[in-house]
Amino acid sequence: xxxxxxxxxxxxxxxxxxxxxxxxxxxxxxxxxxxxxxxxxxxxxxxxxxxxxxxxxxxxxxxxxxxxxxxxxxxxxxxxxxxxxxxxxxxxxxxxxxxxxxxxxxxxxxxxxxxxxxxxxxxxxxxxxxxxxxxxxxxxxxxxxxx
Length: 147
Hints:
Layout: E1 8-11, E2 14-16, E3 21-23, E4 29-31, E5 40-42, E6 60-73, E7 79-89, H1 106-117, H2 119-137
Parallel strand pairs: 4-5
Antiparallel strand pairs: 1-2, 1-3, 3-4, 6-7
């Protein structure tokens, strides 16, 4: 059989010359578009019943929270800093507000993490960093060298 590439469209199960469904010569599938730009390109509202598997979806965010005290410096003249880090799962139950990974902004992701953690946890983390900086500035314990 010859390797022939064709572009074709269907409407109500009948091949037609325009719009609703297209598989172009490059194998890109379009629904609601005659010029798909991805392997599967759907333009319009979609409804899915059953399991949907997606890639390039952020399920977990590895985060780091930094704090800096510019009023106090260490022996080298650097501002006193502290940080904490962790991993937070984010809610993926509503992909209707899906943002492509390449389009994510730091503020969006920070909002997701803070919403998932809750205001009390975020406040506690920030207070913990303030306490770490205070401990660096005014240590409550002293380390002695032995030997």
